[in-house]
Amino acid sequence: MKIIIGFLTFLTVLFNFYPVKDVSTELNENKSLYVKDHIIVKFKNDVHFSTAAGNTAAITAHELINHIASKSGISIKALKRIFPDAINAKQEVFNKYGLDKYYKVYFEGKKDPKDVCTEFEKNKSIDFAEPDFIGEAASQKGTGKIKPNDEFFGRQWGLYNDGTIRTTVGRPGKMGADMNVINGWEIETGSDSIIVGILDSGVKLDHPDLSGRIWINPREIRNGKDDDGNGYIDDVNGFNFAYETSNVKDDGGHGTNICGTVGAYSNNSIGYAGIDQQCKLMVCKNLDDENLGEYSWWAASLYYAANNGARVINMSEGGYDYSKMLENAVNYAYESGCLIIASMMNKNNGDNYYPACFKNVLSVGATDTDDGRCRQFTWGGGSNWGKHIAVIAPGNRVYGLDYKDNYNFDVYWSGTSQATAYVTGIASLLLAQDNTRNNKTLRDIITATAKDQVGDPREDRPGWDEYYGFGRVDLYAALNYNGIISPIDYDRLKDENKNNDNRDSELGGQNQKAKAVDRDAAKDERSERRNDDDRRARRNDK
Fold first, then answer.
1. In this prediction, what percent of the chain has a pLDDT beyond 70?
2. Distances (CA, A) of 195 to 166, 200, 496
3. Digit-coded pLDDT (tens) for 254-286
4. Which residues contact 409 (CB under 8 A, 6 or more apart)?
5. DSSP strand E in 211-328: where?
6. CB-based burial of residue 487 (10 Å sphere; 0-12 exposed, 13-18 middle, 19+ buried)?
């Protein structure tokens, strides 16, 4: 979602631009949003580029792209690999998904990217081509004050709910409508050996409630070189995929809140308590200064996190359009051993969003202070539902850390983003308890121990349902899991949802036609309050 500043009423509008190059976007009649100046091209796996002296894969790929483009009168500006070679890549999985065959292709002129994709897919060397779709963060910011019981922990109703906090008019809080964290902490508080990938807008690195919790790449120093050979220069704390630098500073605010929700210091007399008190946070900045992101950034950040030691990956973000590139990046991370946890999104409907819809993702909805599905966040919207939902967790008015001021503790965010971060913290605590658990085991424990029938009985039916999934997560129950409870076949539910996807095929047999999400009303507003040149200048200053 967007921050509450001057455009609160235009929550469903998305904008995104690429630094230096054409920074405009395209909004088609089906309300898909994608970057206008480039597309994603995937060569077939059996296409091999020359390695002869004087040639490189990039040059040979450039020549092939130019050859294909010239037949359709398309002029190519630049070519860029999405997944760089890395010595720590999981090579078998890397080869399986042909990650070395993915390119961003920048072109001249004002051609519709979908038309360009169609032209490229006519060539037998191309596996598929698709626009670089744009997604957004899955929550929105607000500010306010609730008198806490003891400094700031009293505001964290998701960790301990005494029933006194109300976030929605007409819905009083309910004692015990939380994740049973206090009891859970008696069993496990975390381990600094567990790395959690936070794929978001970055982090305030110097925040006293976070500074010692940020992951440090042990094989990298700031010297302008790729010391560890992972394909990224100076990635000491992670990488900035939005602006292609090592600076992971948060300039949107969403990421700092998510980092704190997962892993802020506890018992240090300031700020708030993260659900995991010990884990390390790997910062993968894949949202820009308006908390929006191109799918190519998301795919690259998944690849990075999986290659560099993350066991759990938090994706509090989502986009409306299916992407084969993004799905394969998710599959790469999952088959590399990561548990990917993503937001259901906040439109208060049953539409599909990605990556939450993908089979190898644990998808999270949000509850309110009364344990019911959050039908209206502090800013509006509501928690989405669907056949791919796994669990729900607290997500309304989640207080946390500010990305500008180390001592401003009156900022909260609301959305499935925060619910997702809580579940990520539970997963990392389960790993701290037993680091031999694999991603499927983690998912099974979280779903099997979730509390069923905690919400509105009209939606929260016995067993799995499309509004609450398996139920509201419970940390104490998860840490006491004995293996007896058998979870429902979540993979089957995901497969059924994929087969029932309401998007029609447009490009290369992929589901690319997006369902309307009411962005037309804000289209004119976008033009009025944004100037492409100003946007370029802001990005160039990063």
1. 79
2. 34, 15, 32
3. 999 999 999 998 888 888 999 999 999 999 999
4. 152, 271, 272, 399, 401, 402
5. 238-240, 280-285, 292-294, 312-315, 317-318
6. middle
Query: For the chain, how many helices (H) and strands (E)?
Result: 13, 19
Give the domains, in start order, of the chain with CATH numbers.
140-499 (3.40.50.200)
Confidence of residue 391 (pLDDT cuts 50, 70, 90): very high
Closest Cα to residue 190, out of 262, 86, 245, 115? 262
Which helix (H) or strand (E) segment holds residue 195: the answer is strand 195-200
Pick from 84, 81, 64, 75: which is nearest to 37 by CA? 75
CA 400 to chain centre: 18
Structure tokens at 489: 């076949």
The whole-number average pLDDT for the span 86-97 is 92
Amino acid at 354: Y
* Residue 252 to residue 518: CA distance in whole angstroms: 24
Length of the chain counted residue by residue? 542
Phi, psi of 10 (to 5 degrees): -115, 50
What does pLDDT average to over the chain? 82
Task: Please provide residue 156's backbone torsions phi and psi, each rounded to the nearest 5 degrees.
Answer: -85, 70
Give the ranges where 143-197 is alpha helix by DSSP (H): 181-185
For residue 416, the number of C-alpha atoms closer than 13 Å in the C-beta half-sphere is 35
What distance in Å separates the CA atoms of residue 165 and residue 145, rounded to the nearest whole number? 11
Q: Are strands 510-511 and 505-507 parallel, antiparallel or unpaired?
A: antiparallel
Report whether 79 contacts 106 (CB < 8 A). yes
d(CA 356, CA 415) in angstroms, rounded, equals: 14
